[in-house]
Design goal:
The chain is α/β, with parallel strands linked by helices. It has 18 helices and 16 strands. The protein folds into two domains: 303 residues, no CATH class; 155 residues, Glycogen Phosphorylase B (Rossmann fold), CATH 3.40.50.2000.
Length: 486
């Protein structure tokens, strides 16, 4: 069961939701995957059953008996928390009592500070000062509503971090930052994987030496990602004869006050899909990609995408971006995130083509970690954990009480990008208190059977009977393994 702070298939999503979607999309035929996330006072539990999703509404924050009923009733064998925001208050305690292994992935710095970007009001990395008054003034400036003190905040999440069996980081830089503030039992570094173009496409921009020198600002436009700095640097680069490309943001995201003579040197390529960004970078063919995040990134997928396209980068002095560039030599690490520092670095590489070619040669030697590589590691990782734990067999009487659900095809499984509704019953599932579930049984068993027959028939039409019966057979296999272990 994956635990998130928001759904990954609705509206704009970040790296956390994108990462969970990648794992589920690749593992949904090997495991029954669940996603739990908050919605109002309740939590939604989505069950990914092959190409379908069953959505249940769970008031999981009310008592530990209900949480145990959910974990035991749905047969949850492993909990992988992708974000701690909005997590059910008693989830970790109940999972520990039930001996269900819990893994936590750290995608940002939320457990360290409510200001999870760690960007001070003056627009730079705060550096995690030791003076609590500095933290308090920063929070008062950043948030309109009162927030807990940083010491209270960290004490709360320190307990949660102690309760997990393993904490996964995406860079050594982030692990070291957390290790200085929290007592972590077991940790591991797992890098993100990216989607690479199909084999046969060109591996590097062609004819770069003949093209005018250009840079690309990659990613969406956001203040924490350096939007204000880019706004100041872009016209200066254009004035210096450098072509400026924007990939991931729109022209309307940037000032209309830029002089027309500078805009002639600027090219806006719009948004991109994850599986096309590397190809589009190669087609644009910039000599440099600038990643000017103010915050200490925990990994930086865009950095991997620039390297996969064969392009050196310019990054700021903190976080995983700086760590990775220093380790590989695949770019320039600025001493400070100031407009003049960016200009000096770009113009120096424009003048010194030999230095630029050395960076390109270093980039070609960097191994690129693909999405399939990442999924393969998680597949082995999950298998190892489950082999060493007791599998939970779903209790039929509990599952039968969960009778009202909505079955749909996820948008990311549909070629048209539009969700396809296959069957609907009662709009949503409402779980009552455990003692009241027996009252639902006479009313819901018939609905459950009708929904089951409908779903099996639709799946058989789409995938064939062999694939349709695969999931029940996997459940029988799990129960058989559990009996052998007894």
């Amino acid at each position: 069961m994956y635990v998130l702070h928001k759904p990954f298939d609705q509206g704009f999503i970040g790296g956390t939701e994108f990462h969970a979607e990648e794992l589920i999309r690749n593992l949904r035929y090997e495991y029954v995957c669940y996603v739990l996330y908050p919605e109002g006072e309740n939590h939604l539990l989505e069950e990914f059953a092959d190409a379908f999703v069953l959505r249940h509404v769970l008031p999981t924050s009310r008592n530990d008996e209900l949480i145990e009923g959910v974990l035991r009733g749905f047969g949850i064998d492993l909990i992988h928390i992708q974000h701690l925001m909005g997590i059910p208050r008693l989830l970790l305690r109940v999972a520990c009592a039930m001996r269900i292994p819990v893994v936590l992935s750290i995608h940002d710095h939320f457990p360290i500070c409510p200001n999870l970007w760690l960007v001070a009001p003056h627009g730079q990395y705060c550096g995690l000062p030791s003076d609590p008054l500095i933290h308090q003034r920063c929070l008062e400036t950043t948030f309109e509503e009162p927030t807990p003190s940083v010491s209270q905040w960290r004490a709360h999440y320190a307990q949660l971090l102690r309760d997990v069996d393993l904490t996964i980081f995406f860079s050594e830089d982030t692990r070291q930052r957390f290790s200085k503030l929290f007592s972590l039992s077991r940790t591991r570094v797992f890098p993100y994987g990216i989607r690479l173009p199909e084999k046969g496409t060109s591996e590097s921009p062609q004819g770069q030496d003949e093209r005018p020198f250009s840079v690309c600002f990659l990613g969406y436009a956001d203040v924490a990602k350096g939007k204000d700095l880019i706004r100041a640097v872009a016209p200066q680069l254009a004035r210096a004869g450098v072509r400026v490309h924007f990939l991931g943001s729109l022209e309307k995201d940037w000032p209309i006050s830029w002089p027309e003579r500078f805009r002639k040197q600027m090219f806006f390529h719009g948004r991109y899909l994850a599986d096309e960004v590397v190809t589009r970078l190669r087609e644009i063919g910039p000599q440099l990609v600038c990643l000017l995040s103010l915050l200490p990134e925990t990994f930086s997928r865009t950095l991997s995408e620039a390297w996969a396209a064969g392009i050196p980068v310019i990054v700021g002095p903190v976080g995983a971006q700086a760590e990775r560039v220093r380790q590989t030599g695949g770019g320039v690490v600025l001493l400070t995130l100031k407009a003049n520092a960016v200009m000096e670095a770009v113009l120096e590489l424009k003048r010194n083509r030999q230095a630029h070619e050395a960076l390109r040669a270093a980039v070609k030697k960097i191994p690129i970690y693909s999405e399939l590589d990442m999924v393969g590691e998680y597949r082995t990782f999950y298998r190892t954990i489950l082999m060493n734990s007791t599998l939970q067999a779903p209790r039929d009487e509990f599952v039968l009480a969960i009778a009202s659900y909505q079955v749909r095809t996820p948008s990311w499984l549909s070629r048209t990008g539009k969700p396809i509704l296959h069957a609907v019953q009662d709009e949503q599932t409402t779980l009552e208190q455990p003692e009241r579930m027996r009252d639902l049984m006479p009313r819901t068993v018939v609905g459950q059977l009708l929904g089951l027959v409908s779903m099996v028939y639709l799946r058989a039409c789409k995938f064939g009977w062999k694939e349709t019966l695969g999931r029940p057979l996997r459940k029988l296999e799990r129960r058989f393994i559990q009996r052998l272990r007894r």
